Amino acid sequence: MKKWRIFVLALLVGLCFTSYTYATYSPSFNDRPTVFDPGKIRGYFLWQDKEGVHLRTTSNGGIHNFSGTVRTDGRFKNVLESYKGDSDYLEVNKSQNKIKYNITASEEEEGIDFQLSYGSYIKFSLSLDSEAINPNEVFIGKDGWHPVSHDFTILYDGDYTKYIDGQTILIIDSRFGWPRGPGQGRD
Predict the structure, then answer these.
(1) Across 55-77, average pLDDT
(2) pTM value?
C-alpha cells in the first residue's frame, strides 16, 4: 500500500511539472529574428511587427534562388518587394489571397513585405534552389524558431481542424497586427 501511495504522489508531481513546461512556451511571430545577419547565414527569416509581415532571404555566399507561395484566408495589402535581380518577380493574384515570388539572392538582404486584412492564417511554401528548403534554414520571430516542414501555416484562429491539409500548423501566441473580420468564405 505504501509503494502505491508513493507512486501516485510521484506521478502527480511529475504531471504538474510536465504541464507547467508545456504551458510556458508559445512560439512568437513577433520581431525580427536575432540570428538574421545578411551575408553571414543562409535562409528565410519571417516576422511581424507594427509595419506588417516580413519575409527576408539572404545567403552566406554564392547565389541562391528563393521561391514559393504565401496564402491566406483574408487579403494581402500593401505588398512591397525588396530585391534587385532581373529574374526576380512578385505576383499577387486577383483575389489578393496568394503571393507567388522568385528571389535571387546572395549576401544581401532581399524579400517581401505585406499586411494581412481579415485573415486568420498565413500559409507558407518555401523553396531554395527549386527544392523544399530544410526547415532548419527557416527562422521565425525574434527567437528564430524553425517549422517542422518547408510547408507550414501560421495560425491565429484556434480552430485548426478546418485547415487540415497535410501542412504543419503553428498556433502563435499573439494576433496578427491587422484587422480581423469576415474573410473569404466567412460571414
Answers:
(1) 94
(2) 0.73
- pLDDT tops 90 at residue 169: no
User: CA-CA distance, 18 to 27, in Å (whole number)?
Assistant: 18
Averaged pLDDT score across all residues of the chain: 79
Write the DSSP assignment of the chain as a string of letters.
Answer: -HHHHHHHHHHHHHHHHHHHHHHH-----BS--TT--TTTS-EEEEEEETTEEEEEEE-SSS-EEEEEEEEESSEEEEEEEE---TT-EEEE-TTS-EEEEEEEESSS-EEEEEEEES-SEEEEEEEETTEEPPGGGEEETTTTB--SSSEEEEE-SS-GGGG-SSSEEEE-SS--SS-----TT--
pLDDT mean over 100-127 = 91
Domains of the chain: 43-155 (2.60.40)
Q: CB-based contacts of 129: which residues, under 8 Å, 6+ apart?
A: 64, 65
> Could you give the C-alpha distances from 98 to 25, 87, 149, 178, in angstroms and in order?
30, 20, 19, 17
